[in-house]
Amino acid sequence: ATIVQSGHFDKSNIEEVIGVGGVSNICTSFLNDQGGHIPFHMEKLMIGLSVEDINRIPTVIAVASGEDKVKAVCAALRGSHMDVLVIDMATAKLVLEWHRSHPIQQ
Question: pTM for the whole thing?
Fold first, then answer.
């Protein structure tokens, strides 16, 4: 994860987020696999937009590529956190496959 590579989070922080159902982050917010926001104490240490801030933007364009982004893309789509997605064909196929094998929970 970029937040680990940047040195802002260590592996134990990521394991803690995963332990409470986190699959991805958008800016300073963490999401579960259904796209819902997971409050996490480390958010207070991050500077940037929250998912609530992003949802107030009229047109949000997201760019993603790579197998490691599949869960994040699916969570963001399920949470309606973007309006336009720019994605490569290989990743798009993996997103569709993941979505089919992980039904949306009501």
Answer: 0.86
